[in-house]
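Sequence only, no structure available. Ideas?
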Amino acid sequence: MAETFRSARLVYRAIEDNDEDIHFILSLIQESEGRIKNSKSLSTPANKKAAQQVTEKLGESFLSVLICLPVSANNNKNEAASQVLKPIGRIGLWPIEEKNRHHRNTNFGIHLLK
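Reply:
I predicted one. Tokens follow.
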């Protein structure tokens, strides 16, 4: 079970309610601004509050993880290299909304940085 959230090159970890993860989610939102437009509403520039709201919404999903690359934290050959996880994207699987239950579908999303 220890390798459940790890592949050969990537680590998938929970999105935490901390400044680093919220800042990363904000960077994903800002990167996609201008490319993704919702015809039902006007776009507004994303801010930290918007990123916190997205993070809370992701917490309600069936699956929500950050996709991370393990990178070496130090270059000293005498010390054991510690691994730091650098987020590069996120994956989400959301439950069916009650108003759309009759369609029997859900939303799955992968959002990667360029």
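The chain is about 25% helix and 30% strand.
Hope that gets you unstuck.
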